[in-house]
Amino acid sequence: MKTRADKLIVKITSRHNPLVQHARAVRAGKEAALIFIEGVRLCAEAVAAGLLIEVAFFTDALVRDERGQELLVALERAGIRLSELSAPVFAVIADTKSPQGVVLLARRPRTDQATFEVRQQSAPLVVILHASNNPANAGAMVRVAEAAGATGIITTVGATDIFAPKALRGAMGSAFRLPLWTGAGFDEALAWCAARGIRTVAADPRAPHTHTEFDWTGPHALLMGPEADGLTTQETTAANVRIRIPMRPPVESLNVATALAVVLYEAARQREIAVGSRDG
Q1: Are strands 241-243 and 102-107 parallel, antiparallel or unpaired?
Q2: 5 has pLDDT over 60
């Protein structure tokens, strides 16, 4: 053991160390209460968001990087338990091909319905990710949602874990800030919207109206289906409204994260104009 800035640091050189095995279990999703965060920027976002961090793993490569040094100082000031790993041992726990030398194990943020509700605004713009099973796409959609001004995301039962390592990297910190409700039933999510006067809008390439022809200024929830097959006819029919994104042939579909961005930014444009008109 050694000290740095008067903080105790444990140095680990064996891949069989219990703490290393614990990190691997968290990475694999076997420890439901914890999430695995990797990379300098993402770890810095976790610290800034105030996540409860159990332990930080780092290598000497972090010390040699300017941003890495700043992160290490922030972790030390926060009183986080620090474990320095040798490069071969760190490679055992890393989830990336070119690791930056830092991993955090943090408490999973609350994503229950009650917590989600408290953080909603008077005119919500919610995204419902139904059966989204690609973690990279799911992470990208979380990032798009925050960037475009959505007030939260609901994921349905069976969807990919928004806090899986690959999804977190795709979200680039947005998953730590955006209100989330995970594991909702499809009917449950729609009923929640109906009870609060939130109109549900399904993205459907067969819809008669485009996303620009729809009035997004009120409370709405945009329903997005899984990447491969999209929403079923029964699911789109369950929504209050169906909209489509116009595309020139022979293109028939967009990546789901791209489609979400196109629709949300139109919604944001309309809502900003509406706010400006009221203020004016």
Answers
A1: unpaired
A2: no
**In residues, how long is the chain?**
280
Q: Are 185 and 158 in contact (CB under 8 A)?
A: no
> Does the predicted model carry a pTM greater than 0.85?
yes
pLDDT digits (tens, 9 = 90+) for 260-275: 999 999 999 999 998 7
Sole residue written with tokens 């050694």: 2
Structure tokens at 34: 């914890």
Concatenating the DSSP letter of every residue in the chain gives: -EEETTEEEEEE--TT-HHHHHHHHHHTT--TTEEEEESHHHHHHHHHTT--EEEEEE-HHHHTSHHHHHHHHHHHHTT--EEEE-HHHHHHH--SSS--SEEEEEEPPP--HHHHHHT--SS-EEEEE-S---HHHHHHHHHHHHHHT--EEEEETTPPPTTSHHHHHHHTTHHHHS-EEEEE-HHHHHHHHHHTTPEEEEE-TT-SSBTTSS--SSSEEEEE--TTT---HHHHHHSSEEEB----TT-----HHHHHHHHHHHHHHHHHHHHHHHH-
Question: How confident is the model over 67-79, as a mean pLDDT?
Answer: 93
Confidence class for position 7, pLDDT limits 50, 70, 90: low
Mean pLDDT of all residues in 203-215: 93
Q: In this model, does residue 101 exceed pLDDT 60?
A: yes
